[in-house]
Amino acid sequence: MPYLGPRLVITGVGSGVGKTTVATGLMAAFAERGLRVSPAKVGPDFIDPGYHRVACGRAGRSLDAWLSGPELIPSLTAAAGSDADLVVIEGVMGMFDGSGQAGCDGSTAEVARLIDAPVILVVDVWTMSSSVAAVVHGLRDLDRRVKVAGVILNRVAGKGHETLCREALEPLDVPVLGAIAHQENLTWRERHLGLVPVAEHPAEVRAAISEVAAIVAASCDLEAILAVARAAPRPFAGDPPSASHSGDITLALASGPAFSFVYPENLTLLEQAGARLAPFDPLVDRALPEDCHALFAGGGFPEVFGEALSQNFPLMQSIRERIDDGMVVWAECGGLLWLCRSLDGLEMVGAIDADAEMTETLTIGYREAVTNAPSPLGPAGSKLRGYEFHRTHTCPAGDALSLRSRFGTAAEGFSSERLLATYLHQHLSASPVVAERFVATASAAAGNGASA
User: Fold this and answer.
1) Against a cut of 0.90, is the pTM above it?
2) Which residues are catalytic?
């Protein structure tokens, strides 16, 4: 039965206080002790879950109350921990920073409430001492439904500094579960608003996480933290979303360093719908996987690998020919850029009559979308929900989707009955029918029939 098991949430005052360091370090430290640790991340992020996967050896899940709907957060958490001893969830931004969308809080605090999980606060104390009590007091008391079970002090200047912080917190009866000294080697490499993806520097990341695990293990009370997680209530969580079988296809899945952004839940739903996943690396593979019927190219940073992608002429030519012959394609963000004629002047696949380039503007946020024409994801007028995160644009922008956010409307993307390529990242847990439609379209196009 899908019950919520041992779990805890790592959160903080805001971004940059050390949540990723502490969460990833705890994951790795517990895993090194033989525990089966399942990682998760609040919000739509792809990059932090990559670090979590290295730490735990398990795919990092995303818990986003706006993308999936708050009602699915408990079942998604239970599914993540179904064969694990412990679920460690890293929060997003500050504890109460939400989605900014009407009717959906979406904050780390809301996710913790929805799954009745204890919260551990990471507080960067580098520029404070006794004031740490005011910070913790405020976060603990703003919403008492959120159970603040302890504090981990980060960037502690020395033993005297640690003593002052601990003494200040004593009246609050919030235990200090760790104190991590300030160390320059705990600064992570960043790009845009997040870390550089693991796929770009795997050996370096593995070494860094091993070091972080050792530091966290030496600086935190792991037994006390594990006891906090195990003391969490164990309510029934409901069954996770699933897709119905709608066809039989082999789905070429763009993977490797340039295309590492894909929600594992989406892949599970595509498999349930009837897709056999066939990963390939566009940086090195000279042809699509044998006998594939369709292509999925998710997000990443293809601009970082533009030179190598542009030199893989055999693969690009074969993809153009397959698309011209009617192969069904779904591309998100990085996949869209790769399918354009060019990216920053470098030749790309050329299946889309547009050119892409980097800009100084970061486009970021949640989107509600409506398709303006038939596509592999459904008929014109299909409603989609997703997230955008990019510093590029295409010329022309396209008009496959009409997008709406709190701050206005826009059109973008390219579509046909057998292709959809847009900037929109979708988390399909709230709409498994999208996976079913895609597999059914590809199966029918391949002559394999379709059951949906």
Assistant:
1) yes
2) 333
